[in-house]
Amino acid sequence: MDLSFLVIQALSGLASASALFVIASGLTIVFGVTRIVNFAHGSFYMLGAYMAVTILPWLFEFDRSPTLFFVGVVASAAVVGVLGVLMEVLLLRRIYKVPELFQLLATFGVVLIVQDVVLKVWGPVDITGPRAPGLRHGIEIFGQRFPAYEMFLIFVGPAVLGALILIMHKTRFGVLIRAATQDREMVGALGVNQAMLFTGTLFLGAFLAGLGGALQVPRVAANTGMDLSIITEAFVVTVIGGMGSVPGAFIAALIIGLLQAFGILIFPKITLVLVFLLMAVVLVVKPWGLMGKPDVAAGRAILPEGILNLKRFGGVEKLFWAAAAVLVLAIPFIGDAYKVKVGIEIMVFALAAFSLNLLIGNGGIVSFGHAAYFGVGAYAAGLLATGPLKLPMEAALVAAPIAGGLAAALFGYFVVRLSGIYLAMLTLAFAQITYAICFQWVEVTGGDNGVVGVWPSRWASAREVYFYVVAVFSILAIVALRHLIYAPFGYTLRAARDSANRADAIGIDVRTHRWLAFTVAGAAAGLAGGLYAFSKGSIDPTMISIGMSIDFLMMILTGGIQTVMGALVGAAAFHSVKDFFMPLTDFWRFFLGSSIILIVLLFPRGIVGAVDTFRERFGDRSAAAGAKAPVLAKEAA
Amino acid sequence: MAKLNLSRRTVVGGLAATGAALTAGGVSAQGAPIRIGELNSYSRMAAFAVPYRNGMQLAMEQINAAGGIAGMGNRPLEIVFRDDGSTPGDAVRVAEELITRERVSFIAGAFLSNVGLALADFANQRKVLYLATEPLTDALTMASGNPYTFRVRPGTYMQTKMLVEASKAKGIKRWAIVAPNYEYGQSAAAAFKRLMGEAVQGFEVVAEQFPALGRVDAGATVGALAQSRPDGIFNVLFGADLTAFVREGNTRGLFERRTVVSLLSGEPEYLLPLGDETPDGWITTGYPPEQVTAHNHQAFVTAYKAKFNDTPRLGTVLGYVVPFMIRDMLNKAKSTETDAMIAAFKDLTTETICGPVTMRGIDQQSTLGAWVGETTLNGKLPTMKNWRYVDGKDVMFPEAEVRAARKA
Asked: Which residues of chain A have a CB within 8 Å of the CB of B125?
């Protein structure tokens, strides 16, 4: 490898890094101030590109000049910034008081809606935008040609960084952003108009995402997959840099850009997993990212987001859940074959969601990668049943939870050392690494095609029989997990969630308990995965994908993370909504997203949470007794 | 729950009408329609799948206007379209819905290979016919092939072979390969190495790049390829990755004085977005809609333009051909019993706008071909030149290989 090549490759890496930084800087600012994990950031990026391919050709009608190019790019970004303001005013402002995770749910609803709106407005065909006038050519460097536009991009990143530092230090708005990033409650207590601050921040964040998208137009065609292709990478940059830290994001983007440029020379297939490997390593070594600081609020006892008023079933609930169980078990008698199929899926997802809420609602361990354990269970079951061993279904179903539990024990060992968003992102990183292994290890896992022929044993091959197999396993597992929540172990977990320091002080081994919970939840998810594999007849990497993890999150949030049984209702509701809209229209994502947003706005504590609120308000005795718990928690705060 | 359900239904009932027309009835045809379930990635892969569905609808209308399925008392054909959710998990559930709720006689469709394979296995398990129209993976007709699954489009191996046949005479030895990092890219690269290796003495691959699908880092990838100084480049990237790759490669001069062989790039779906940056002379498989005249092809182009005000894409051709194959199959089977349909499909020849297409019995792969030629610009419009239609029957897997692969 000669020197000129190394220089060119480094320049390519710098150009990518610069583009990535522009996008990630917006995400990190928004997170720092609002604490919202804004999934819609990728959608803003995509909208920026679509705006630019719409505005630029129109501007070039007047004059094909570099000036107009920049005018067009900035105008596109500004339009997207306004869309960000709209999202803040119409949606986010209404839900700042609800648990932070619900805001994530709402932004994910926006992602789905934007996908279909873009498809409707701009059509499915990729739109290739114009190149930048005056920057079309290549520059000769050491006898190799390097695109002038990329040379320009290399300088955009530092320019944006400089501008942001100026804003942060020289304007009141910027000072407030920094203050809110450090201690949001204190800023509020000092009488700062938070609504204005948040609106301004969302504008800045969306503007930067839109700018990033518009700047890509001379390099890539605007396409409908842009949002999801960038969002994970942008998250990785912000996390590696330290959430809320703009300089940190800059350094992280540089590292990723250069690693990518040189990494592919050694491992041509590395791009799938490189950034996640890097994130996992950084988080294991530096739990707050490169330049992030521990959250000041982390030491405080705050009102936790999870199960608070744990109450046993009253008469009504007993009746309701008994009736629900009977109804579910009767599906093969009253429904057709398709209902049975959907029933199987709902039970499987209910188990997976319930196990996730053991972590989130009960343990305060927000996992963004629960599909990893679901998928490991599915792969273990599928590969044992179809691989060289050809084990029967029964053995494979025993192996599934063991595999899921082992994977969770391995990853959980590192995960439980962290907290908050960093913990969530580490779970995501591990899930992506698992995904990449299943995707890449073609000889064993069949790669992205997966493995087919994972069907139940002969005695269980009838759909109805398999339905009861799933019913027995999932109901027993759910009952066991529920028991765990009510057992001292559950109380210990909640103590650790509400105040790790105090729990530690009274002698609870917080880490070990969390680790155990993570392992148990992983095993339960693994069992669900195994059951799912045999119901589908195949395994493939989509079972481990980010989309699957998000689905599980959606389910428990829809049902209500503050309730024990919410996960079950959420799984049923989410899956039914999806199943209801998919056959109706191509634009089912739009309706799914709208349903999610409606649920967030109407039932900010989830469906079961809403039922509880309703009962509290109307003086149900058992609920009123339970409602004292949050009061106590508030006093503790 | 029940109450919620009701309100949802009322809200959405009206909206559903704004969605795509789901069904179309017959005019001259009579009697209860023969229903076919077609599931595809209409949402995620709309650029390919929507023109495909349009083609199907056009063919279905024409078939029904001409009297439907003559062999079954002129019953009309009815295709029930569904989104497959682009994941195997969703697809298998939708297929179940089509069979139990919509009572379709068999299922067709799928774009992604893993979805196609999952559906094939589902068909095998449920003993229903599955006509895989678009998935390209060779596993569908080879190692994972089963008696219930038929595939229409020429698979990865076939299309790669067409390109090797068209370019091996140049005798280029030093090749660089760039392919998306998933099964399609990997098996195309493997097929290319095998076939070109057999055809050219001293063939060597000097660089390989496998960027993640939809996330190509074009600058770094082009740099890595250029560094290896190949004489030929085999490209498997498509869609947004292709556009980024072409722009970067053009600016950096990667394609200058090099032969580029590129899979699928000549298909209007992927070629049109390249616009005036379309490189000249890439050897590729594709479809030049305005130039094909054989087999009354232009009548189809005109009819399609009249109905949808758009030029047909490759997906349209495929979607248009499939219902005619189904018609001939049903005419021959005179039944919607799965066994009868399978027997009728084997070695069935259909006259299509691409010429005669036979469903080869041994691997249940159709002989539908592809147009092989060179990319070029006609004014500002990307298209193909020096093309010819390569019949699929000339590039299929040898029968011995099929027998070895399909043990089941």
From this structure: 455, 537
Distance (Å, whole) CA A109 – CA A113: 6
Domain spanning B22-156+293-369+399-405: which superfamily? Answer: Response regulator (3.40.50.2300)
Using the predicted structure, report yes or no on whether residue B25 has a pLDDT greater than 50: no
Q: How far is CA A241 from CA A252, A287, A428, in A?
A: 5, 11, 16
Interface size between A and B, measured as CB pairs under 8 A: 221
| Domain residue spans of chain A | 3-299, 315-636
ipTM entry: 0.86
B176 within 8 A of B206, measured Cβ to Cβ? yes
Structure tokens that stand for A427 in this block: 């779970």
Indicate the pTM of the whole model.
0.88
Is the CB of B121 less than 8 angstroms away from the CB of A453?
yes
Number of H helices, E strands in chain A: 29, 4
CA-based nearest residue in chain B for residue A338: B97
Q: Which ranges in B87-182 belong to alpha helices (H)?
A: 88-100, 113-126, 156-167
**Side chain identity at A375, as an amino acid letter?**
G
- Cβ contacts (< 8 Å) between A260 and chain B: which residues? 217, 220
pLDDT of residue B28: 61
pLDDT (tens digit, 9 = 90+) per residue, B272-323?
999 989 999 999 999 999 999 999 999 999 999 999 999 999 999 999 999 9
Determine, for residues A591 and B120 on separate chains, whether the beta-carbon distance falls below 8 Å.
no
Instruction: Judge whether B22-156+293-369+399-405 and B162-291+370-394 match in fold.
Output: yes
Pairing of strands B232-235, B174-178: parallel
State the amino acid at position A395 in one-letter form.
A
> Hey, what CATH class is B162-291+370-394 in?
alpha beta
Burial class (CB in 10 A: 0-12, 13-18, 19+), B18: exposed
A 10-49: CB under 8 A from B: 12-13, 15-16
Give the architecture (CATH level 2) of A315-636: Orthogonal Bundle (1.10)
Q: What are the residue boundaries of the structural domains of chain B, listed by start?
A: 22-156+293-369+399-405, 162-291+370-394
Q: How far is CA B391 from CA B4, B140, B176, B269, B276, in A?
A: 55, 20, 28, 21, 30
Q: Is A455 on the interface with B (CB under 8 A)?
A: yes
The CA R_g of chain B, rounded to the nearest whole Å, is 22
CA distance B207 to chain A (A): 9
The phi, psi pair for A603, rounded to 5°, reads -120, 75
Q: How far apart are CA A380 and CA A530, in angstroms?
A: 7
Give the other-Cβ count within 10 Å of A301's Cβ: 14
Residue of chain A minimizing CA distance to B239: A126
Nearest residue of A to residue B113 by CA position?
A449
